[in-house]
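Reminder to self: tokens first, then the designed residues, so the page reads top to bottom the way the pipeline ran.
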């Protein structure tokens, strides 16, 4: 049912696009303004650099984040069921795989999510794929001490961003590519957004959604935001499964990129590092750690990986967690939705549903201090 309100979403990463799609589904008129849009490549635009897979990092002491991750898992499971039934549907680029987590020592995290995912199980050293990995591991290298498995999703991120944009467009969402001014305060940026949107033939917005990721640091002066740099290596071939290995001081993953005959290897985390230049030593470490886990990708003439590209992306880390709240900026209604760190895909649906609720609340008339 149409809702007579116009929402202007700032940002076209996974957070802004998912929010725009759900707001449009709820009947709002929605416009997006973003400096970078699906198809673009920039260190200022995190979403295209992600792996990405569903593997929660939330702890049971963060119930909101746990809930978002589970909501997204369920939403994607239902989406895949629908896509599998109708081959004519536009493909999202998401696929379900076996997903293995390996620890070189004790399990260092709480597995609260086990009851919510499909086919969760512990894997013993006398089971595959552990038998094969152990055979391939050089004698003095660390062995896997603990392993669990489940069914989880990998996301072809360039395809998924385009899918979200197409879904949004089919619901009437308009995308405007424009950079908003920074350094003069959020109100000045909102006024610039307002004039951009009206010049492009849309009416004045009733509410804004700020989904500018790491860009919010400058856009609204939020110094709690910081980059968590991740380096990845894209290699030829689609791995048979998703693999995450957690060892002393490192976490390494192999994430097949559905339908693209390629796999992302990575897992590094460098807090506060802004550089977009990959470190060759880190590349060698990633390739070495992954080689025992995905032998099906060792197709190079030298028996190693066939590297397509090496890149870095900046996860939007934030002290205190994502900022999800309403703000009245000198009479302008804003809902903030940024700072999703390394979980912006896997929590995107839960986060976007909260955005929709906060937008609904922002537009609900209040009388005095009482809320209807
Ligand atoms: C290496 C790596 C691996 C990752 N792996 C995973 C994973 O496996 N699973 C997972 O869930 N997540 C993963 N992530 C995290 C995920 O990618 C991020 O959480 C997510 O992409 C953040 O999206 P966003 O929409 O909030 O920000 P962004 O994608 O950065 O989008 C911000 C948007 O705001 C716009 N913007 C900013 N400033 C302005 C301005 N002044 N004017 C106009 N527009 C502006 C930008 O142009 C852009 O459109 C990974 C990230 C990296 C780097």
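Designed residues (372 positions):
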């Amino acid at each position: 049912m149409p809702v007579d309100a116009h929402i202007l979403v700032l940002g076209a990463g996974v957070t802004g696009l998912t929010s725009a799609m759900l707001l449009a589904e709820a009947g709002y008129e929605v416009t997006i303004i973003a400096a970078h849009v699906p198809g673009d490549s920039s260190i200022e635009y995190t979403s295209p650099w992600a792996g990405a897979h569903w593997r929660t990092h939330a702890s049971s002491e963060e119930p909101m984040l746990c809930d978002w991750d589970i909501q997204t898992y369920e939403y994607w499971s239902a989406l895949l069921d629908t896509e599998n039934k109708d081959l004519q549907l536009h493909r999202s680029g998401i696929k379900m795989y076996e997903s293995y987590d390996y620890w070189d020592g004790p399990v260092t995290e709480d597995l609260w999510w086990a009851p919510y995912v499909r086919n969760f199980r512990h894997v013993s050293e006398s089971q595959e794929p552990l038998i094969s990995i152990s055979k391939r591991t050089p004698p003095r290298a660390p062995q896997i001490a603990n392993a669990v498995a489940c069914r989880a999703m990998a996301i072809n991120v360039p395809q998924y961003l385009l899918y979200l944009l197409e879904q949004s467009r089919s619901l009437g969402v308009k995308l405007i590519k424009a950079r908003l001014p920074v350094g003069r305060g959020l109100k000045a940026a909102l006024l610039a957004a307002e004039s951009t949107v009206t010049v492009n033939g849309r009416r004045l917005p009733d509410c804004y959604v700020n989904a500018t990721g790491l860009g919010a640091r400058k856009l609204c002066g939020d110094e709690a935001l910081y980059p968590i740099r991740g380096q990845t290596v894209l290699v030829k071939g689609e791995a048979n499964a998703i693999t995450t290995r957690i060892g002393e001081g490192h976490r390494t993953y192999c994430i097949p990129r559905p339908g693209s005959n390629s796999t992302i290897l990575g897992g590094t985390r460098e807090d506060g590092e802004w550089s977009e230049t990959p470190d060759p030593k880190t590349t060698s470490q990633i390739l070495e750690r992954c080689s025992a886990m995905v032998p099906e990708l060792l197709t190079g003439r030298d028996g190693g990986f066939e590297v397509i590209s090496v890149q870095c992306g900046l996860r939007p880390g934030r002290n205190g967690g994502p900022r999800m709240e309403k703000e009245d900026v000198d009479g302008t209604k804003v809902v903030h939705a940024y700072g999703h760190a390394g979980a912006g895909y896997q929590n995107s649906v839960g986060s976007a549903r909260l955005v929709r609720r906060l937008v609904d609340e922002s537009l609900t008339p209040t009388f005095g201090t009482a809320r209807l």
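Confidence is low (pLDDT under 50) at residues 368-372.
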